[in-house]
Give the backbone structure.
Amino acid sequence: MSFQNLTIQQIRKKLIAGELTSVALTRACLERIQATNHQLNTFITVCEKEALAAAEAADEQLAAGNAALLTGLPIALKDIFNTLNVRTTCGSKLLDNYISPYDATAVQRLREQGAVIVGKLNMDEFAMGSSNENSAAGAVRNPWNSDHVPGGSSGGSAAAVAAGQVVATLGTDTGGSIRQPASHCGVVGLKPTYGRVSRYGVIAYASSLDQVGPLARNVEDCATMLGVVAGYDPADSTSVDCPVPDYLENLAAGVSGKKIGLPKEYFIDGLDAAVKQAITAAIETYRQLGAEIVDVSLPHTDYSVASYYLIATAEASSNLARYDGVRFGVRKDEGAGLISMYQQTRAAGFGDEVKRRIMLGTYALSSGYYDAYYLKAQKVRTLIRQDFLEAFEKVDLLLTPVAPTPAFKLGEMINDPLQMYLSDIFTIPANLAGTCAISLPCGFSQEGLPIGLQLIGQPFAEADLLQAAYAFEQATDWGGRSPELS
Ligand code: GLN
């Protein structure tokens, strides 16, 4: 049974009409996971029993005529979401044995709308990475070519959608972790505005940047998923109390008369030829759809990678201080006292990249350096945000590549962290500015690897973003393709 050519709304109609049961759909996902996980390594935990029980309950709800927005739909979560009574490792050895005593708000909202939670997806440890190679559960492979990375840190979330293992997934995006893997795996990924979706129960990486969002096969499914998880949550003090529109309502509004800005700093020499070609064609498509294309400048773009890697590591060093072997996860203790227990636990529990970032961040926050690094980076961040706000006085949306190249090979950058950090250049600024952005398929390289297009919207204008993405998706046939898995 394949659901891969159907949208969530179409599956939902079949479920409501009784043409399909949630149990059959969930079984099909579980079988697909079983058949492909050895190749992709997308799932850290599969919740087979729980998923089938939830599917049975969903079928009862459907039979009783009580369909909520996601009743019976199999969905999986990046392993960063606390999930009641389910192992939640965040891709780390340190949380290898951690079973969450509660659901993150986003998970709770999915459940309230009847979603069937199928399992927990692989990711870079503590969401630090761009390739999903930094995972205690091992690397994830790109479903389009298993020699290549799926992107990161939500690599499992993107690859699982591309491979048809589940209908949709949730990821998190601190500096590109939804958009870049979506781009590398040929699916749609949306990073909402900072404050749009509650992070309560989401394991923190860099709190002033982290945001939760959907990855799905198409724009409409992203709109459906966002509608479910978005909205104010008193349990997250950064969540914003502003109304959530019906994202499906005007999805087909088109882009006629919309002004789309091309930031000149994003069209650099280092851009891969295939990426450049796909983006140029996308610009032409938008022109034909009636959008006005305008050149703009975001002059502080060059400073974004440097300020991001100071702010993100500084906040990470503070957030990760809680993993001391006392309250969560694994403890290593040879009985030589408390300090030694902390040291052993952290030395054994964290991977190399996480340690590198904790050291970097601790250094940046240390007395005497705080003003020179963290404070300075925050000031630069304000300039970057102002660049965006000024650009949005002239245009409705910005159009850019998601990443400078298609998915690179496994092992290609892992020993060169700086190079890996630099590849985040196009996704990081939207996080620093706190605004929303979407990644959607816009082409393929000669080797058959997907290429993504990024649209960046004004704060809280996710509806505009989805409309523009939908218009492109309808006008082209890059989306919704499926890789052939052996
Ligand atoms: N690649 C970036 C980093 O390693 C972004 C990660 C993310 O968005 N979680 O920090």
Notes: The first helix runs from residue 8 to 17. Residues 276 and 401 are 8 Å apart (CA to CA).
